[in-house]
Write a structure and sequence with these properties.
The protein is an alpha/beta fold. The chain has one domain: Alpha-Beta Barrel (TIM Barrel), CATH 3.20.20. The chain is about 45% helix and about 10% strand. The chain has helices spanning about 5-20, 25-35, 75-85, 120-125, 155-180, 200-215, 245-255, 275-280, 305-315, 335-355, 360-365, 370-380, 385-395, 405-425; strands spanning about 35-40, 95, 130-135, 180-185, 190, 225-230, 240, 255-260, 285-290, 290-295, 295-300, 325. The chain is globular, with a radius of gyration of 22 Å. It starts with a helix and ends with a helix. Belongs to the rhamnose isomerase family. It comes from Weizmannia acidilactici.
Amino acid sequence: MLKESFVTKHYKLAKERYAAVGVDTDKVLQDLQNIKISLHCWQGDDVAGFMHPGQALTGGISVSGNYPGKATNPTELRADLDEALSLIPGKHKVNLHAIYTDTDEKVDLDTIEPRHFSSWVQWAKEHGLGLDFNPTLFSHPMSESGFTLSSPDKTVRDFWIEHCKRSRKISEYFGKELGQQCVNNIWIPDGMKDNPIDKMAPRERLKEALDEILSEKIDQKYTIEAVEGKLFGTGVESYTVGSHEFYMLYALTHDLLWTIDAGHFHPTEDVSDKFSAYLLFGKGLMLHVSRPVRWDSDHVVIMNDELIRITRTLVRENLLDKVNIGLDFFDATINRIAAWVIGARNTLKAIMIGMLAPIDELKKAELEFDFTKRLALTEELKSFPFGAVWDYFCLKNNVPVGEDWLEEVRKYENRILPERQVDQTAH
């Protein structure tokens, strides 16, 4: 365990080093304190939810691994989130899917109401958290055909339209109760495994469905819609109805957020390059920070080049106020709480690294075609003592410094998770 005096001493040295190139680390930490990460609830229970126990995952979603002790009800999931959030510096948000209702009533996706999430709101109030939301258009009998909002079956389509309308009301409820805007993110799994004959008709149906869903105006003070595209998923390799282009254009023409999931693009694409191109025209972005491995596989976020490019772009181009940052991954091969902590701390740390640079000076050099200085300085910054600044940020937020957080997770695991393992075996 690192002593406070050690952390403080090294921060002072790092502060001097950064000051030499014109960076105020105190100001960086002040700005970092205001960053909110939306922690995705579905990492805690492998995207199962609590509405339909035992329902198989569909929609191209797959979770590998069987690490013991996953959450089996809302109380357990909130306890796990409490543990994770206690190890992540700052005040953040939690992102819910509609299947994470907390009610004894028999309810389906087309009958959910705000009251079915009242316990989540009470919990968020007690912890000073915001909530985001997602309608759940997968893992349900009405999605078995592989089509939801774009289905040729009007009965199926109407079911999902009603679900999405109700999701908007739940998002509005979150925003009103918590005093923080709730992002309501719409993603659908619709597509085809083999080559379709007609690509236009499903998109026409999707557009009409979205138009109907959004026909009622809701004050954006409380909630704002986001629409999320996808490259492909298992079972829809040949055709995705809600492609990136479809949703980008729909968001542009309907005053919505466009959701960019870092795992939903081709491995050779630079996701960060899309931000400035879109935000010259678009309202804003919802960013899902994920890590693809070969394809859309939603691995735990690590400190790699892709993450650094994403966060540096957000900082250098002054986009943080236009981008909502959330996480989206699920890994059941490791401790699920640790996965949250690793992903969130890495994302925050990467944002901090982006801030720890003389950005105005670098922009000036670039404007003057001094590419030598630009390259030299950006390369030198790679070995600056950002770790000491991060440790101090954790210290000031009363969360474990360095790897000490893992010891806390192990204690929780040894105290709580074995009981769940017994319960799950009994069932």
